[in-house]
């Protein structure tokens, strides 16, 4: 069994570090955000997020802002990420049950690795796919999921865990069932996921319900 995780909004709340780095980058580049810098803007790929919060069309200014953000976030803010309650226990239990785990995240590889190292989570993930981990250029989340599935030669029973409708759409495009977490950035967002959970340990009931043969009809609580 393979569990593929989103990172931001699913395993960690990285909004404190992201918003702090954004504010510092705006100040450094002399740019005024188009709206309030709140947790709601966190989640999309960096280029998309910057366009949303600036409404800028000037490519050079966007590039300058992007580079400033990357430098600030990567070296001083990314490790301020906080694990959501119950995540550590869920990961530990998955290891005990011999599940394979992987990451597919819109975050870039460098800060992803720094966060995993800071939390001692490198040991949990067999494969890590990020927006920039493909030498061919930036990749979509659907492509990340397909890449991970190819590493297992298509023989693994997969499940993707995310927090937005973008996650469920990427999973559907990749032919992988998706479970949405209710504690993420986009609460109560409509998605085409197979289930919504509000506690990390509920993941095990969902997995059993989907993949284990059931002799009797069972109702998830």
How does this model look, in words?
By secondary structure, this protein is an alpha/beta fold. The protein has two domains: 2-13 and 82-211, HAD superfamily/HAD-like (Rossmann fold); 15-80, DNA polymerase, domain 1. The chain has eight helices and eight strands; from the N terminus they run E-E-H-H-H-E-H-E-H-E-H-E-H-E-E-H. It has helices at 15-29, 46-54, 59-77, 87-96, 109-119, 141-151, 165-174, 203-211, and strands spanning 2-5, 12-13, 82-83, 100-105, 127-130, 158-162, 178-181, 195-197. A six-stranded parallel sheet has the order 5-4-1-6-7-8, sandwiched between helices. A two-stranded antiparallel sheet has the order 2-3. Helix 5 links the parallel strand 4 (100-105) and strand 5 (127-130). The longest helix is centred in the N-terminal third of the chain and has 19 residues, at 59-77. The radius of gyration is 18 Å and the shape is globular. The relative contact order is 0.16. Mean pLDDT is 89; it is low at 213-221.
